[in-house]
Amino acid sequence: MRHVAVDDEGAGQRLDRQLARLLPGVPRSRLFRLIRRGEVRVNGRRAQPEQRLKPGDDLRLPPVHEAPAAGPVRAPRELVDRIVQAVISEDERLIVIDKPAGVAVHGGSGVGFGVIEALRAARPGEELELVHRLDRDTSGCLLVARRRSVLRTLHALLREGGGFDKRYLALVQGHWNLGARRIEAPLRTDLRVGGERTVRVHASGKAAVSRFRPVQFFGREATLVEVGIDTGRTHQIRVHAAYAGHPVAGDPKYGEAAFNALMRAHGLGRMFLHAHSVSFVWPESGVEFSVNAPLPSELGSVLDRLASATAGRRRARRAQGT
To answer: What predicted TM-score, i.e. pTM, was given to this entire model?
Structure first.
C-alpha cells in the first residue's frame, strides 16, 4: 500500500479522475473495481468514485500493475546522490530534505522523477511518502514520512489548519512599507492555453492566508521578508506578494521584468523563495518538532551584493551632502 496526499491540483476533483492521474497505466474499469471493493480509501474510509477531494486528504492506493509506456523511469544516479546529500535531519519517523531549487518534489506533469523518486531509489524497501509539497523553483525544508501512521498524523495536522508553522524567506521588489501584514485573499487556479497553471486573487477562489514580515531593507530596490503561511495553496506566496505590490524577485510568472533584470545584474539566477523552517507539535506526546534550512549560498551572495550597493549609494549621498 502507498499513501498520497491530495494537493491543490487534485483538490475539488472526483476520486476516479484523481486516480486516473495517479495511475495512468491502469484501465478505468479496473480503477472503478478498486474503489467499489474498498481497496482505495480516503482518510481511511471507503469512498465513491464521484466523491470530491479536499486538500490534504489521504488517499490509500493498493499495489497495482500499471502498463509501462516506454519502460520504467529511473532517477539518474546524479540526482539520487544530490538528494541523499540534501538530507539535513532524520529520525525513525521523518526525513527532512533541504530541497534544491529546480528539482520537482515528484514526477508528473512532464517530469519523469523528482525528490521522492530519487529518495526511494536510494532507500529501496522503505515506505516513503511526501508530507507536503514545494514548488519546483522553491528551495528548502521538505518533510518525508517513513511510516503510514506518521503520514496520517501529519496530514490531520495539515487539515486542521495552523498545525504547522511553515516559514519562508523571499526577496521582494521595492521598499516594503506595509509593516507586519496579514494578507487574506482567496486564490483561484486557472488553466491557460497549453495547460499552464496560473493562480490569481479572485472572490471565487479558495481561502488563502499569508503573513509577511520585513527582515532587511535594501534601499528602494528590494526587501527581504519572512512569510508564514496558514494555508498551502498553489503559488500562494508569489501571488500574494504580487497582489501586495511587491512581487518575488526572479519570479518569471508573477514578477516584474525590469526588476528581475536588475536582480540578475546582482547575481540572482533563480527565484528568491526559500522554505527556511518547519515546526509543529506531535499530538500524541506534546513534543515540538522544529527544523530549519539555511539560506543557500547563491541567495546569500545576492543579499551581500545588494547590501554593498545600498551602502555605496548612502556614502555617495553623504558625500554630496544630500
So the answer is: 0.77
